Amino acid sequence: MHSKIEIEIESKEPLYKQLVKSIEYLVDSGEYRSGDYVPSLNDLSSELNISKETVKKAYSLLRKKNLLESAQGKGYYISESKINKLNILLIFDRLGTYKQAMFDSFSEKLGNNVEISIRLHNQDISTFERFLDDGLDNYDYYVITPHFPLIEEVQKRVVHSLGKIPNRKLLLLDHHIEGLSGNFGSVYQNYEHDVYHGLQQGVETLKKYKKLNVISLKGSLYAPFLQKGIAKFCSDNSIDYEILYQATPEDIKKNQVYLILNGQLDKELIELAKTAISKDYNIGSDIGIISYNESPINEMILNGLTVLSTDFYQMGEVAANMILNKSFKKIKCDFRLVRRSSF
């Protein structure tokens, strides 16, 4: 009786790795269940016309991953502990407050039967490549925030590295890679589209002010997309705006709105608030302040800091559901203007 374990002799991928992936797939798909025996070393080597040592190497690796166990005189069988527990490699660029919210909802939804290993690549492609190469074949799922410099050569390396992961195991968060094909999962935001529609939710209030000032750092990864969306919004709604790469006290004027694209609790927000207070401006009426990306502490800053943000809690929850349901899709996350007293 032949097993459903498959390999491609002509493939450049080592045969033992193909065996590992094939058995993992049969476990994930439910073909193999806890306690089921896999073919013996001799039987599988004969069935696939490969060496016994190749099968032994694959089985040894599967034992290290706690997917296979062995019984004296009976052979190898699927481990009960592995069936019930998922092993996930999560590679974030950074772990800020909103990434923490994403992670919290992700892990909460998955429950206790998971082991999550976290790595931070800090937007460095070489670090990411090392993490991924070290982790290949060792995890059930790979959950990645693929934030890297938008340089052609770097993006090619990103696509190449992600292509090493089977689609059924790959889940991208926060940013979708257009150059990557396949049925992998992706829960993402669309920067240009989102900022346009987020500002549209506050358009009537914005029109009460003389000008929208956008404070942005040069070199920020997605600033060009955000600025394009902002420019289109302002053009469509006849709103005067300006991009400021460094806001001086002289730039802080009454009856204007300030949108900070570089996150929350950063230098720009602190300096802006200090200047406004020193000029006796009432934040929320004399001037408006909007920050980009939600954080739990925003409810307390300036009696409530208005933000434009994707729903990071939703992002983590949707990603977890994809894994639990073994159904990967590409879903754009909700994005909204969260109105508080600063605007």
Low-pLDDT runs: none
Provide mean pLDDT, rounded. 91
**Total number of helical segments?**
12
Order of helix and strand elements from N to C terminus: HHHEEHEHEHEHEEHHEHEEHEEHEE
Question: What radius of gyration results from the CA coordinates?
Answer: 25 Å
Span from first to last CA? 71 Å
Spatially, the strands of the biggest sheet line up as 4-3-5-6-7-13
Specify the helix fraction band: 25-40%
Q: What is the total tally of β strands?
A: 14
What is the percentage of strand-forming residues? 15-25%
Gross geometry:
elongated
- Major sheet description: 6 strands, parallel
Q: Specify the structural class.
A: alpha/beta
What does this structure look like?
- The protein is α/β, with parallel strands linked by helices.
- Helix content is 38%, strand content 19%.
- The chain has a 6-stranded parallel beta sheet with strand order 4-3-5-6-7-13, sandwiched between helices.
- Strand 5, helix 7 and strand 6 form a beta-alpha-beta unit.
- The radius of gyration is 25 Å and the shape is elongated.
- The relative contact order is 0.11.
- The mean pLDDT is 91.
